[in-house]
Write a structure and sequence with these properties.
Elements: E1 2-4, E2 9-12, E3 14-18, H1 21-26, E4 37-42, E5 56-61, E6 67-74, E7 88-93, E8 107-109
Parallel strand pairs: 3-4
Antiparallel strand pairs: 1-2, 1-8, 4-7, 5-6, 5-7
């Protein structure tokens, strides 16, 4: 689950971590939907949405778990700017992070049990 530690609010229940070269490369490419889930990509400071079918929200998070940059509604076939000091990113369907999480908030996550994605 993904939690905003500032408010105690659970943002989503299902968290997948891209921790292999293949899972990091594929990310959300080719997925037709990704509602009520997030993808965490470690060691990441820039994101692209090539070959994606829907816009996404992105949180760039520091090593200490603080949101340092937020992108809302990045459309397919776009690239974000490189965000210095980003330790990992959290990606979700557009609209997931509109008001629940802000820059400066501390977040934490726990990997969900393996399910079909």
């Amino acid at each position: 689950m993904l939690i905003n530690n500032e408010t105690g609010q659970t943002i989503v229940l299902e968290v997948k971590i891209a921790d292999t070269k293949l899972s990091r490369t594929l990310g959300l490419m080719g997925k037709s939907e990704f509602h009520r889930k997030v993808l965490v990509i470690k060691n990441c400071s820039q994101v692209h949405t090539f070959f994606m079918r829907f816009p996404i929200d992105i949180l760039f998070v520091s090593e200490k778990g603080v949101v340092i940059h937020k992108v809302i509604g990045l459309k397919p076939w776009r690239v974000t700017k490189k965000v210095n000091h980003s330790s990992y990113v959290i990606e979700a369907t557009s609209g997931s992070f509109t008001s629940q999480i802000n820059v400066g908030d501390k977040v934490s996550f726990q990997k969900s049990e393996e399910k079909t994605w």
